[in-house]
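I'd like us to work through together how a protein chain folds, taking it slowly. To get us started, please write out a protein record for me. Go ahead whenever you are ready, and we will take it from there:
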Amino acid sequence: MTGVHPMTGVHPMTEPYSPNEEEKRSKKRPLALVTGASRGIGRATALALAEAGFDLFLIARKEAEKLKDTAVRCQSLGAAVETCCADIGDYAACEAIFTALDACPGSLTLLVANAGISKLGLLQDLSPEDWDTMIRTDLSSCFYLSRLAIPRMLRAEGGKLIFISSVWGSRGASCEVAYSAAKGGVNAFTKALAKELAPSNIQVNAIAPGAIDTDMNAWLSEEERSALEEEIPAGRMGLPEEVAALVCQIAAAPAYLTGNILTLSGGWEI
């Protein structure tokens, strides 16, 4: 599994794992797919799930070396890991991802759709191309990944879909209109899909983080960061590991937990 697919842009980073029949019979670890796994919340989530007993299929759009480093760390925690670089805002690339995933042992039981992009600026300065890219990456990808994951979870007789949204999805943010619109769409998508899939034992939830200390907020100056932290009742920005811990809690939660947008903001936006 090498090279870049000429049509989809999928670039697998590891050779496919081909267990023998005895390994297949003895394999009991659940399989999770995590997007945006090269850094930030996605990386922390991959590590937490590996420690929780999941095998992993990790996706990033680029940053192959960082994705490889995440995979190595997850392997050190006992997980079998496959990785690939792909644009999840492209449906054909998502199809190729799931074709590769089907070659992995075990059944997909968890999807964590974390990958996302943001762009600061006035709406009138946002190009139609930038709008389309953000909607595809932050919202349409949830549809693409869910559409492909659901049949596999139905065959497994259950599963969980977890989308990483944002507090701006319910409150809106000035100069982040496209991002807010996309995350608002994720929230509505979560609630509607949860109702549709509940009879099939597939739970759908979203996490709406507040200000998390990741590269997405690295543009803040020291003064801006201090002012922001003063607004947060908890007195600080959140950590990627805290979002990852909540992902693990949802993954282990009873099946009756579905259709929720869980805010993780230190009391900031509730």
Observations:
- Residues 1-8, 14-26 have pLDDT under 50 and may be disordered.
- The chain has one domain: 11-264.
- Residues 190 and 205 are 6 Å apart (CA to CA).
